[in-house]
Amino acid sequence: GLFVTDYFTRTPRKLSPFRSFASIELFHFHIPEDTVIAVWNLITFKEQGGTFGDQCPDRSITVYFRSGAPSVINPLHTHFPRDTAVPGSFALTLTWTLPNRTTGVFNVTSPLPGDWFLAAHLPKDEGKISVKGLYEECQYLFQPQLIVQRLVNIAVLYPGYVTEQSMAPHNRSCLYKVFVPSYTSRVLVEVLRCRGAEGCPLWLRVRAKAPPLHNSTALDCREHAPCQLALDLPFWQHWYYVLVEKHPGVPGTVSFQVTVQLTDCSRPSLGRPPFLPSSASMNMPHSFGSAGGLALGDGPPPASPNDTKHPVSVPTASSAGERCWPIRPTLRNELDTFSVHFYIFFGPNVSVPPDRPAVFVISLLPVLDSGGVLNLELRLNVSSLCGENVTVFGCLNHEVPLMSGDNASVTCETESLAGFLLTVNATASLSRLRIPYPQTGSWYLSLRSLCATEHGFEPCTNVTAEVYLRAYLSPCINDCGIYGQCKLLRTNNYLYAACECKAGWNGWGCTDNAEAFSYGFQLLSTLLLCLSNVMFVPPVAIAVRSHYLLEAAVYIFTMFFSTFYHACDQPGIVVFCIMEYDVLQFCDFLGSLMSVWVTVIAMARLQPVVLYLLGAMLLSMALQMDRHGLWNLLGPSLFALGIMAVAWTARTIRRRHCYPPTWKRWAFYLCPGALIAAAAVLLYAFVETEENYFYIHSIWHLLIAGSVGFLLPPRAKPTGRLGPLPRRKGCGYQLCVNEQEELGLVDPAVASINSICTS
């Protein structure tokens, strides 16, 4: 055949350590139909400070692959919520081959067409809280590239017609495909009139959705005559690929005929007549490969010398298990993103008759619905059982309903089909099922009622069970509970939701409490972070006593908003918010930086109000730009220290003596205060982690407030200027000061009393 190669790539993204699914990087690819091989080239490289990170440590990178929906991963081995089905995926770990770059290759032969998702992350770290901009962080960038090779002009088999083929000596196989419409209960592929040097040296392989593999359903035509391969309960609305492969070492040309027969379960007494599909198969694609499109009522395509077609007889289906029952649709009601309810007509209570199953279909839209959670709930009305020991079995299957006539549906599985089982009875009348990141398409729910006997389950007689059925799509499982937050995430144009847990809780739905914080621990951490701000009371008292009223007001502002910000910032349930979180955070950061600013300005003995206003404006601008940026916060503080250094230097030069002048001020106040502040900064920048945050940050509060008490200068002494003289009475006279002198227009040093006022 003719091969076409397609290339796809994605933009490199920075990987993060795994904490929850919200911390992974998700990549979305689309593999076209008729793809015979897909090769993912996984490129990973390090960066540090805009250059290659040769000095960065080697950290393993885990990549997950899944077709149809994102992978449901659990690298921390946490517990999933009850009644949760975990779909499987394939994982690959990348190791480093070069100091700053590594490449991995992942091949998939005959991959399933449609959406493929890759998820990548770094291992979980120790949770260190780093100050943004303090040092160049090591970044691990991941870029996947996809190369696919697909066949074009694959020959199409039409049900009920024979295709003749001759396989030349240099050819090893022939590939065909046939479309299976809805309401098809059986696919029969047959090789006829096989003639070769050694009988019929052919292998017959069949696979749904993609070309067959070595482990696909196969039949050796040399050992089976006639060479027929039957598939029961095929996937609806999909292509089935037929591979006729020659045994290795067989000489000469092998000629054969191949035909496909489909059994229509909606008409069990008839096979599907050629080119007259049922009404449900009207959605058959028009991309019929080399044979061209075929509309309803058209005749077969013209025959070629090596590819002739003519009708064959279609056997009837006599088995009762090949019948299919009416499928009741559901009404889709979209409330929000990943919030969809599926309503049943004349529901939600449904009747399950004893002689046949009740079948419902839930349609999930491609791409749009695979990022949420599919929820299913069955509740049995015990009063409808009339005292019988009835059990209602529900089988949820993807793309084809499981409706066999015997009791095999109790397992919801066949050789080529696997589903999810739900059971309700008089003892356990409620059953739930949650499927995170479900595959899109049609999901079929088959409900059957069976009565328990001594010999197992048997069909019931004259008992119609009533079941309450609820099906809906939600963003997260139980909205992540009280210890989690459901986040809506986006990668390019693909949306998905995931839980982000807090207070030590883990798991897909934040239900794993193996490392959870107790209520007492949460209360203790909240009290420590809040009450440690009481340490600002002594600096407030010192500022008031020294007549630093503006500084005292700033310290009170800082103490108030820091207390209530940390009361609102707690991860658990001990939370108290008096304002919006963002307002409290801004005021806490602003108050902390303003405390530093006014303290340094006071140490400089500068009183102009313009400096305080300048600091407030600069700090507000810096916080609005980036509240966690190092230099946006450190810049104004260094500017204030520069002003203080200039003021102290000017005084030292003018007085020709070191300022502050006394050694006691340096030994007992400035040096201890500076050491305490430096210790607080070191703890904040290098020691604080997520585990020790509550007590390290409390110590930070204590040290910062204590350093302010040491660094705040004493009350300023009088400048020596003579103010207005007091009015004194003596000997019946009152001495008065000249009015000009009182207004400061005369030098007080040469002031004279030149007016006498009579009392």
From TrEMBL:
Region feature (Disordered): 293-317
InterPro entries membership: EGF, NGX6/PGAP6/MYMK
Keywords, in A-Z order: Cell membrane, Membrane, Transmembrane, Transmembrane helix
Transmembrane segments: 516-536, 548-567, 631-650, 666-687, 693-712
PROSITE patterns: EGF_1, EGF_2
PANTHER family: FIVE-SPAN TRANSMEMBRANE PROTEIN M83 (PTHR14319), TRANSMEMBRANE PROTEIN 8B (PTHR14319:SF6)
Family: Belongs to the TMEM8 family.
Major localization listed first in the record, in broad terms: membrane
Its membrane topology: Multi-pass membrane protein
Domain EGF-like: 499-510
Species whose genome carries this gene: Anhinga anhinga
GO cellular component: plasma membrane
Highest rank taxon of the organism: Eukaryota
Protein name: TMM8B protein
